[in-house]
Amino acid sequence: MPRAFLAAALAVASVLFAGSCSDKPQGSTRVLVIGAAAPQMRDLAAGPLAAPDAVLMANAAQGLVRFDATGQIVPGLAERWNVSDDGLTYIFRIATTNWPDGKKVTAQQVARILKRLVATSSNDPLKDTLGAVGDIVAMTDRVVDIELRAPRPNLLEILAQPEFAIARDGAGTGPFAVAGGTAAGGDLRLVREQAADGDEEGTARREEVLLGGANIVQAINTFGGGKADIVLGGTFADLPYPLSRKQTAQALQFDPASGLFGLVPVRSGGLLDNVEVRQLLSQAIDRGALVDALHVPGLAARATLLEPNLDGMPTVAQPAWFGTVLSDRRSAIAATAARLLPTGDPKPTLRVFLPEGPGARMLLNRLTADWGAVGILVEPAPDLKSADLALVDEVAPSTSAAWFLRRFRCDQVPVCDAAADQLLDAARQTAVPAQRYALLGQAAAAMDNAQLFIPLAAPVRWSLVAERVTGFAGNRYARHTLTDLEQRLNPGGN
Fold this sequence. Notes:
Layout (H helix, E strand, L loop, with lengths): L2 H11 L15 E6 L16 H10 L4 E3 L5 E3 L2 E6 L5 E6 L12 H12 L14 E8 L2 E6 L6 H5 L17 E6 L5 E8 L8 E11 L1 H9 L5 E6 L4 H4 L2 H5 L1 E3 L4 E7 L9 H10 L2 H8 L31 H15 L8 E5 L4 H15 L4 E4 L8 E7 L5 H6 L11 H12 L3 H17 L4 E4 L3 E5 L29
């Protein structure tokens, strides 16, 4: 274990001996989500979800479809669906079910809720991913028709996200129901009852989950004391906490998460307006040392905006310099820095906005050393307004390359490429999949050449899982159903 990482782990270990929360009732599964507040049902059109709220929405207000433990699409509110041969029409048949107040769920209600989430006035953070939706119509009381302007093979992945959960008056249709009152410690009591498999008499099988939010220290203490079965929502920023204790380190499970983890300029008019400076910054980072320090199995350094194995996209080619170890590139990097950067004092300074946590401090130290070697001072920014660069740490909601690229359009970031935007617009408008993928590939190349984003690796997402929980699995979306947690997974999935 590298010394810097070991020091960080030992430092945080000293604060992990506070008292933990009350015992969980016998027979229930207690799940804590790292976050500032307890989970609540939210208006999805109002804005982004906190991690505890996202877990609650996904499990108490499912979408038309939802994810199983392994990230596969399974029925949610819709019991089945069909896709037209041209990929432009998705027809969902709504299961016969009721809202918690006993009123029938109708396709008209579902269509109205979804249309509100994708409306211009909506602040749902994923509404842009459904830009190809032409209309959402209730065909009958139980049939919803989603019409697309162009094929989108990842539509179901988007609809399974908690940002498109179907909720009405602060309530959803499951798979869990929120029981009245709260459990000890302020946890929500979630209950799911269903007929036992193979039981002709329909004997109900009951699952009970206690769902709560906790800060990282509370979550680690509670799990380490045996009073929680699962902790969700871990990121790179707080990873040193569970690694600092043997019991929690042994319970770590990592998602093979897909998405963006890197730095983006958040202001124009300075040093970062120069594309060569942005390229220099990217080339100067010792990504290998950063990845090694994080101790995440399978995590690989990355120097391109897109990752491998996205829908329809060819193999992603890393830049030529990426294949040469940093020590062999230092002289060329130093020469470029001498040409681009002002000499003398004061040295150029970049302020970087990062989340709180020992993992983030580790990243800041890495940038300080690597950019300091080329003559740039690095300082932490107290807020986004005072920063030059900010961290992007986001899990992709689908396997579409468009999500990765549209994050860096000119209406989203101050340092951009108008030509890449035109390629993205053309890709959204074309109805020919091959042409769409070609245009996305050209946009990706333009953004990489312009170094609009400084990639580091894939996002890190971790959970703590007790030994008795056999139905938990990691997946690329880092979304975790609370169903069947104590049922052993089949080799092929849930």
